[in-house]
Amino acid sequence: MKTIDSLIRNTISNRNALKETERDRRILSIYEKYPDLRRIDSDISDIRRDTLMKLLDGEIGSEDYISSEERTLLEKRSKFIKDNCISADFDRVGVECEKCGDTGFIKKRGNIRTVCSCMKAELEKAYEEAGLGDFYSVKPSALDESQIKNSSNKRKTARERLDKVMADLLSGKDQSTIIYSDGSSTGKTFLAVCFTKIVINCGFSGAYIKTDDLMETTEDQLDDLRLCDFLVIDDFSGAQTKNYKVRYNLNRILETRILRNLFTLIVTCESPEEAVRDSDERIASKLSRLESI
Ligand SMILES: [Zn+2]
Question: Ligand 1 centre and the CA of 234: distance in Å?
């Protein structure tokens, strides 16, 4: 699974390579137009090389040392650039996105960061990689618990618990595995998908999978499911664990995640008691020890 971090890193490295090519092209065209500037810059490079040698030989004590020769050349260079109306940063690599300074993330309070709008495509790709391809239209900004606070389902409790999970994740605290059990059509999947998206948008690795799909996971996918920061296992029912592949994969996933204190949300329409009763022995013994909402 390509995480949001790796997708952004990849884009930034491509972006930097392009920016450097662009800068080199710009320098070349300025030098062609102003050969005197090329000479000044070449002289400055020679002096800097000499200074570096002297520094390595111990003749100079400080890395900040600038010889009077270099100083004179730098002044000459500034004047030349100004007199010829050349852009002062023609030889620098520019910043494409002012908002994030080409880091891909916007710093929020403390250690909280969110993906910058210039990485929208990468974010969508990360959602897809996390198994959220079918939930393109689900927007975390549409989460509105005020509309359901009087209803009899557990959505409000689940929302509050997930808010706490999010806060714990941001402060690096250990996490646990939770069973979220509620009737059908109570917005469980919507809530779980929204939070998986929020987690990814904050730079963590998240994944979503329906229990049925555990029948055909590859080893690589299984590794992602075992090790990502935030995992949702949706549409769980105890009876599904009678299937060997589901049972085997789920057991491996839960074993690793419980041991490593990673957050897992098991979403089910069954009550926790039913889920335990109907599950295969090994899964049941794990489920029976979990917190449930
Ligand atoms: Zn940006």
Answer: 33
Give residue 7's pLDDT: 97
Comparing CA positions, the residue from 290, 274, 206, 207 lying closest to residue 240 is 274
Q: Could you count the other beta carbons within 10 Å of the beta carbon of residue 113?
A: 18
Cβ–Cβ under 8 Å, residues 23 and 93: yes
pLDDT surpassing 80 at residue 111: no
Supply the pTM of this predicted model.
0.83
Q: How far is the CA of 117 from the centre of ligand 1 (A)?
A: 6
Separation CA 155–CA 191 (nearest Å): 8
Q: Which of 27, 45, 39 is nearest to 87 (CA)?
A: 27
Is 254's pLDDT higher than 90?
yes
Tell me the pLDDT band of 65, cut-offs 50, 70 and 90. confident
* CA–centroid distance, residue 197 to ligand 1 (Å): 19
**Alpha carbon of 205 to ligand 1 centroid (Å):** 20
Determine the length of the chain.
293
Distance between Cα 136 and ligand 1 center (Å): 22
Cα(92) to centroid(ligand 1), Å? 19
The pLDDT score that the predictor gives to residue 257 is 96
Residue 221: its pLDDT value, please? 94
**Using CA atoms, how far apart are residues 233 and 236, in angstroms rounded to an integer?**
7
User: Cα 194–161–229 angle (5° rounding)?
Assistant: 60
Cα separation of 126 and 283, whole Å? 30
Name the nearest CA neighbour of 108 among 170, 164, 196.
Answer: 170
Centre of ligand 1 to C-alpha 156, Å, is: 34
The answer to whether the beta carbons of residues 151 and 119 sit under 8 Å apart is: no
